[in-house]
Design goal:
There is one protein chain. Helices cover 75% and strands 0% of the residues. It has twelve helices and no strands. The longest helix is centred in the middle third of the chain and has 39 residues. It is mainly α.
Length: 273
Protein backbone atom coordinates (compact mmCIF):
# COMPACT_ATOMS: atom_id res chain seq x y z
CA UNK A 1 0.00 0.00 0.00
CA UNK A 2 1.08 3.61 -0.29
CA UNK A 3 2.80 5.21 2.69
CA UNK A 4 0.33 5.43 5.59
CA UNK A 5 -0.08 8.70 7.49
CA UNK A 6 1.26 8.94 11.06
CA UNK A 7 -1.04 7.20 13.55
CA UNK A 8 -2.68 5.03 10.89
CA UNK A 9 -4.16 1.96 12.58
CA UNK A 10 -3.75 -0.97 10.21
CA UNK A 11 -5.75 -3.30 12.45
CA UNK A 12 -8.86 -1.16 12.79
CA UNK A 13 -8.79 -0.21 9.13
CA UNK A 14 -8.80 -3.91 8.29
CA UNK A 15 -11.71 -4.83 10.55
CA UNK A 16 -9.85 -5.96 13.69
CA UNK A 17 -11.72 -4.37 16.58
CA UNK A 18 -13.07 -6.93 19.06
CA UNK A 19 -10.60 -7.63 21.86
CA UNK A 20 -12.92 -9.94 23.89
CA UNK A 21 -13.70 -12.19 20.91
CA UNK A 22 -10.02 -12.63 20.11
CA UNK A 23 -9.26 -13.50 23.73
CA UNK A 24 -12.08 -16.06 23.89
CA UNK A 25 -10.85 -17.80 20.75
CA UNK A 26 -7.25 -17.74 22.00
CA UNK A 27 -8.32 -19.41 25.26
CA UNK A 28 -10.44 -22.03 23.48
CA UNK A 29 -7.63 -22.90 21.11
CA UNK A 30 -5.19 -23.09 24.03
CA UNK A 31 -7.45 -25.73 25.59
CA UNK A 32 -7.63 -27.59 22.27
CA UNK A 33 -3.85 -27.35 21.88
CA UNK A 34 -3.32 -28.98 25.30
CA UNK A 35 -5.85 -31.71 24.46
CA UNK A 36 -4.36 -32.59 21.07
CA UNK A 37 -0.79 -32.49 22.37
CA UNK A 38 -1.81 -35.03 25.00
CA UNK A 39 -3.60 -37.17 22.39
CA UNK A 40 -0.57 -36.97 20.09
CA UNK A 41 1.50 -38.86 22.66
CA UNK A 42 -1.25 -41.00 24.21
CA UNK A 43 -2.53 -42.17 20.80
CA UNK A 44 0.24 -41.38 18.30
CA UNK A 45 -1.02 -40.40 14.88
CA UNK A 46 0.02 -37.86 12.28
CA UNK A 47 -3.48 -36.33 12.34
CA UNK A 48 -3.28 -35.32 16.00
CA UNK A 49 0.19 -33.81 15.56
CA UNK A 50 -0.96 -31.65 12.65
CA UNK A 51 -4.16 -30.60 14.44
CA UNK A 52 -2.06 -29.63 17.48
CA UNK A 53 0.19 -27.55 15.23
CA UNK A 54 -2.89 -25.89 13.73
CA UNK A 55 -4.13 -25.03 17.25
CA UNK A 56 -0.71 -23.58 18.11
CA UNK A 57 -0.90 -21.28 15.09
CA UNK A 58 -4.43 -20.25 16.03
CA UNK A 59 -3.44 -19.51 19.64
CA UNK A 60 -0.59 -17.37 18.36
CA UNK A 61 -2.80 -15.72 15.76
CA UNK A 62 -5.61 -14.80 18.13
CA UNK A 63 -3.20 -13.49 20.77
CA UNK A 64 -1.74 -11.24 18.07
CA UNK A 65 -5.25 -10.26 16.96
CA UNK A 66 -6.14 -9.36 20.56
CA UNK A 67 -3.05 -7.14 20.81
CA UNK A 68 -3.82 -5.51 17.47
CA UNK A 69 -7.35 -4.75 18.62
CA UNK A 70 -6.49 -3.57 22.15
CA UNK A 71 -3.13 -1.80 21.95
CA UNK A 72 -3.08 1.24 19.62
CA UNK A 73 0.70 1.04 19.13
CA UNK A 74 0.39 -2.59 18.03
CA UNK A 75 -2.50 -1.74 15.71
CA UNK A 76 -0.26 0.85 14.04
CA UNK A 77 2.60 -1.64 13.67
CA UNK A 78 2.53 -2.80 10.03
CA UNK A 79 5.05 -5.59 10.61
CA UNK A 80 2.96 -7.06 13.42
CA UNK A 81 -0.17 -6.84 11.31
CA UNK A 82 1.51 -8.62 8.38
CA UNK A 83 2.87 -11.29 10.74
CA UNK A 84 -0.67 -11.89 12.00
CA UNK A 85 -1.98 -12.18 8.42
CA UNK A 86 0.74 -14.68 7.50
CA UNK A 87 0.31 -16.84 10.62
CA UNK A 88 -3.48 -16.89 10.41
CA UNK A 89 -3.67 -17.70 6.71
CA UNK A 90 -0.96 -20.35 6.98
CA UNK A 91 -2.90 -22.15 9.68
CA UNK A 92 -5.69 -23.31 7.37
CA UNK A 93 -3.19 -25.72 5.81
CA UNK A 94 -3.18 -27.69 9.08
CA UNK A 95 -6.89 -28.29 9.51
CA UNK A 96 -7.63 -29.09 5.87
CA UNK A 97 -4.65 -31.46 5.55
CA UNK A 98 -5.58 -33.19 8.81
CA UNK A 99 -9.08 -33.82 7.50
CA UNK A 100 -7.73 -35.07 4.18
CA UNK A 101 -5.28 -37.42 5.93
CA UNK A 102 -7.91 -38.77 8.31
CA UNK A 103 -10.25 -39.62 5.43
CA UNK A 104 -7.48 -41.51 3.59
CA UNK A 105 -6.53 -43.33 6.79
CA UNK A 106 -10.10 -44.53 7.23
CA UNK A 107 -10.51 -45.53 3.57
CA UNK A 108 -7.42 -47.72 4.08
CA UNK A 109 -9.54 -50.08 6.20
CA UNK A 110 -11.72 -50.95 3.20
CA UNK A 111 -11.28 -54.46 1.78
CA UNK A 112 -12.23 -53.19 -1.66
CA UNK A 113 -11.16 -49.52 -1.80
CA UNK A 114 -12.41 -47.43 -4.74
CA UNK A 115 -10.25 -47.50 -7.86
CA UNK A 116 -9.98 -45.46 -11.03
CA UNK A 117 -8.13 -42.41 -12.37
CA UNK A 118 -10.08 -39.97 -10.18
CA UNK A 119 -9.44 -41.96 -7.02
CA UNK A 120 -5.80 -42.38 -8.00
CA UNK A 121 -5.37 -38.60 -7.99
CA UNK A 122 -7.42 -38.06 -4.84
CA UNK A 123 -5.20 -40.36 -2.79
CA UNK A 124 -1.92 -38.75 -3.92
CA UNK A 125 -0.93 -37.05 -0.65
CA UNK A 126 2.09 -35.40 -2.28
CA UNK A 127 -0.10 -33.65 -4.85
CA UNK A 128 -2.49 -32.43 -2.19
CA UNK A 129 0.35 -31.11 -0.03
CA UNK A 130 1.79 -29.42 -3.10
CA UNK A 131 -1.51 -27.66 -3.82
CA UNK A 132 -1.86 -26.51 -0.21
CA UNK A 133 1.77 -25.36 -0.11
CA UNK A 134 1.19 -23.39 -3.30
CA UNK A 135 -1.88 -21.74 -1.76
CA UNK A 136 0.07 -20.79 1.38
CA UNK A 137 3.07 -19.46 -0.58
CA UNK A 138 0.93 -17.50 -3.02
CA UNK A 139 -1.19 -16.10 -0.19
CA UNK A 140 1.81 -14.98 1.84
CA UNK A 141 3.41 -13.33 -1.18
CA UNK A 142 0.13 -11.62 -2.01
CA UNK A 143 -0.32 -10.31 1.53
CA UNK A 144 3.19 -8.90 1.68
CA UNK A 145 2.87 -7.20 -1.71
CA UNK A 146 -0.57 -5.84 -0.84
CA UNK A 147 0.63 -4.17 2.34
CA UNK A 148 4.21 -3.27 1.48
CA UNK A 149 3.87 -2.45 -2.21
CA UNK A 150 4.35 1.19 -3.15
CA UNK A 151 3.38 0.96 -6.82
CA UNK A 152 -0.08 0.25 -8.20
CA UNK A 153 1.19 -2.69 -10.27
CA UNK A 154 2.63 -4.33 -7.15
CA UNK A 155 -0.57 -3.75 -5.19
CA UNK A 156 -2.63 -5.19 -8.03
CA UNK A 157 -0.40 -8.26 -8.25
CA UNK A 158 -0.64 -8.76 -4.49
CA UNK A 159 -4.43 -8.65 -4.53
CA UNK A 160 -4.53 -11.07 -7.46
CA UNK A 161 -2.26 -13.52 -5.66
CA UNK A 162 -4.43 -13.39 -2.55
CA UNK A 163 -7.47 -14.23 -4.68
CA UNK A 164 -5.63 -17.13 -6.30
CA UNK A 165 -4.75 -18.52 -2.87
CA UNK A 166 -8.39 -18.36 -1.78
CA UNK A 167 -9.54 -20.23 -4.89
CA UNK A 168 -6.88 -22.92 -4.45
CA UNK A 169 -7.94 -23.45 -0.84
CA UNK A 170 -11.58 -23.58 -1.92
CA UNK A 171 -10.87 -26.25 -4.54
CA UNK A 172 -8.90 -28.27 -1.96
CA UNK A 173 -11.76 -27.98 0.54
CA UNK A 174 -14.24 -29.19 -2.09
CA UNK A 175 -11.97 -32.15 -2.90
CA UNK A 176 -11.84 -33.08 0.80
CA UNK A 177 -15.63 -32.89 0.92
CA UNK A 178 -15.82 -35.19 -2.11
CA UNK A 179 -13.51 -37.65 -0.37
CA UNK A 180 -15.70 -37.59 2.72
CA UNK A 181 -18.64 -38.76 0.63
CA UNK A 182 -16.43 -41.43 -0.97
CA UNK A 183 -15.53 -42.63 2.53
CA UNK A 184 -19.22 -42.67 3.46
CA UNK A 185 -20.01 -44.92 0.48
CA UNK A 186 -17.12 -47.24 1.35
CA UNK A 187 -17.95 -47.58 5.04
CA UNK A 188 -21.69 -47.95 4.47
CA UNK A 189 -21.15 -50.69 1.90
CA UNK A 190 -18.53 -52.76 3.72
CA UNK A 191 -18.04 -51.40 7.22
CA UNK A 192 -14.34 -50.58 7.19
CA UNK A 193 -13.07 -48.81 10.29
CA UNK A 194 -16.64 -48.29 11.47
CA UNK A 195 -17.07 -52.03 11.96
CA UNK A 196 -13.69 -52.35 13.69
CA UNK A 197 -14.54 -50.14 16.67
CA UNK A 198 -17.49 -49.43 18.95
CA UNK A 199 -16.51 -45.88 19.86
CA UNK A 200 -18.77 -42.94 18.86
CA UNK A 201 -16.20 -41.52 16.48
CA UNK A 202 -15.67 -44.88 14.87
CA UNK A 203 -19.34 -45.67 14.32
CA UNK A 204 -20.48 -42.20 13.27
CA UNK A 205 -17.19 -40.93 11.86
CA UNK A 206 -18.46 -40.76 8.28
CA UNK A 207 -21.13 -38.29 9.30
CA UNK A 208 -18.70 -36.30 11.44
CA UNK A 209 -16.20 -36.07 8.58
CA UNK A 210 -18.89 -34.91 6.19
CA UNK A 211 -19.82 -32.17 8.68
CA UNK A 212 -16.14 -31.21 9.14
CA UNK A 213 -15.53 -31.05 5.39
CA UNK A 214 -18.69 -28.99 4.84
CA UNK A 215 -17.56 -26.56 7.55
CA UNK A 216 -14.21 -26.15 5.77
CA UNK A 217 -15.98 -25.55 2.46
CA UNK A 218 -18.27 -22.99 4.15
CA UNK A 219 -15.25 -21.22 5.63
CA UNK A 220 -13.49 -20.90 2.31
CA UNK A 221 -16.71 -20.16 0.41
CA UNK A 222 -17.14 -17.11 2.65
CA UNK A 223 -13.76 -15.76 1.55
CA UNK A 224 -14.48 -16.59 -2.10
CA UNK A 225 -17.93 -14.94 -1.96
CA UNK A 226 -16.49 -11.75 -0.47
CA UNK A 227 -13.30 -11.75 -2.53
CA UNK A 228 -14.21 -8.40 -4.12
CA UNK A 229 -16.09 -7.10 -1.08
CA UNK A 230 -13.38 -6.17 1.37
CA UNK A 231 -15.74 -4.46 3.83
CA UNK A 232 -17.87 -7.61 4.13
CA UNK A 233 -14.86 -9.92 4.38
CA UNK A 234 -13.34 -7.86 7.19
CA UNK A 235 -16.63 -7.32 9.06
CA UNK A 236 -16.20 -9.16 12.36
CA UNK A 237 -19.96 -9.79 12.58
CA UNK A 238 -19.50 -11.99 9.51
CA UNK A 239 -15.87 -13.05 9.91
CA UNK A 240 -16.20 -14.63 13.35
CA UNK A 241 -19.23 -16.88 12.67
CA UNK A 242 -18.40 -17.75 9.05
CA UNK A 243 -14.60 -18.02 9.17
CA UNK A 244 -13.38 -18.36 12.77
CA UNK A 245 -16.27 -20.35 14.28
CA UNK A 246 -16.51 -22.85 11.42
CA UNK A 247 -12.87 -23.77 11.96
CA UNK A 248 -13.29 -24.02 15.72
CA UNK A 249 -16.26 -26.37 15.43
CA UNK A 250 -14.42 -28.49 12.87
CA UNK A 251 -11.39 -28.83 15.17
CA UNK A 252 -13.63 -29.55 18.15
CA UNK A 253 -15.15 -32.53 16.33
CA UNK A 254 -11.69 -34.13 16.14
CA UNK A 255 -11.96 -34.57 19.93
CA UNK A 256 -14.71 -37.19 19.63
CA UNK A 257 -13.31 -40.55 20.82
CA UNK A 258 -12.53 -43.04 18.10
CA UNK A 259 -12.79 -40.67 15.15
CA UNK A 260 -9.03 -40.84 14.50
CA UNK A 261 -7.48 -44.32 14.27
CA UNK A 262 -4.04 -44.73 15.76
CA UNK A 263 -1.22 -45.11 13.25
CA UNK A 264 -0.59 -48.66 14.48
CA UNK A 265 -4.18 -49.61 13.60
CA UNK A 266 -4.06 -48.51 9.95
CA UNK A 267 -3.50 -51.40 7.50
CA UNK A 268 -0.07 -50.65 6.09
CA UNK A 269 -0.62 -52.87 3.06
CA UNK A 270 -3.45 -50.68 1.80
CA UNK A 271 -2.71 -48.47 -1.20
CA UNK A 272 -4.59 -45.66 0.59
CA UNK A 273 -2.44 -45.80 3.74
Amino acid sequence: MVAAPPGYNFAKNNGIESFPAAVVFAVLYAFLLAFFLFRSFARPTFVFFVVAFFCLLRVTGFIMRALLAKVPADGENLNLFIAYEVIYNTGFFGIIYSTYTLILDRVAFAKNPPRGPVYFLLKRRFLFRLALSAAVSVGITGSIQSFLGTQQSTLSTGNTLRKVAIYIFLVCAILVCLQAFILARVEISEGGYRSATHSPGGKYGIYLLIVISLLLVAREAFFAATINKTAAQENEHLWYPLAALTELIAVGLFMIPGLVPARSEIPQDSEWA
